[in-house]
Amino acid sequence: VDLVLNFLSSQNQMDTLILKDIKETLESRNMVLHNATVVTHGYMAAGTTNTAFLRENLEWMGKASNWAKFTATASIGVVHAGHVQQSMALLQPYLPQGGLSTSPFSEGGALYALGLIHANRSGGGASPTVTYLTDALRNAGNDETVQHGACLGLGLAAMATGTPAAYDELKTVLYFDMAVGGEGAALGLGLLLLGHGSGSTLSQAAIAELIAYAHDTAHEKIIRSLGLAVGLIMAGQEE
């Protein structure tokens, strides 16, 4: 992880002039284009840990609202992917601080960002990050936006580990049958059991449960994400 991070950081050739031109061209337009520019930055700077453009354009970034704010905060995790030692310090200003949620979209996005930084780097599913995200999911209460981010973050941080405890936490949120929280929970379950196929008792049971629930729920978001979850569990299992 450190070698890749050092390589991407030292060999970073991101052209911020391109971003500056895109930003200035689209500045007076709508939020969809603003959001697209934020995503563009995330891809260009992925893994480089270079957030100079964001720091220089904080006011412009602050124009994001609602789910665009969720995406903007999550993009920090894309830029810092693999920066596991500093993840909590980097995201501290955005993460839930306990008590009442003050900005659920940025908090949910920060939990998602934490998962993106630690994706497939959890060391067997028992890391402090997995514990933190599990606690954040429990503390989200009925806030679907925070639930959504915490579920995605937990699925990424515990990716492919098939940890039963994480499975139970995500399944609990899924069975609340709330569209946004359930969507995140379903995708989190797919990531947790990524590529397991029918090779374990847990994944066999999961496939049966997810397909059954897709027939029971009336929420299109949950049905669609359950389909994706089954695809993630069966990734690489061509037969």
Description:
It is built from 14 helices and no strands. The longest helix is centred in the last third of the chain and has 16 residues, at 201-216. It has helices at residues 2-10, 16-26, 31-44, 52-56, 58-61, 67-79, 87-91, 104-118, 128-139, 144-157, 164-174, 179-192, 201-216, 220-233. The protein is mostly helical and 239 residues long. The mean pLDDT is 92. The two termini are 33 Å apart. Helix 13 (201-216) packs antiparallel against helix 14.
Structure at a glance:
66% of the residues lie in helices and 0% in strands. The chain contains 14 helices and no strands.
Question: SSE layout and pairings?
Answer:
Layout (H helix, E strand, L loop, with lengths): L1 H9 L5 H11 L4 H14 L7 H5 L1 H4 L5 H13 L7 H5 L12 H15 L9 H12 L4 H14 L6 H11 L4 H14 L8 H16 L3 H14 L6
Helix pairs in contact: 2-3, 3-6, 6-8, 8-10, 9-10, 10-12, 11-12, 12-14, 13-14
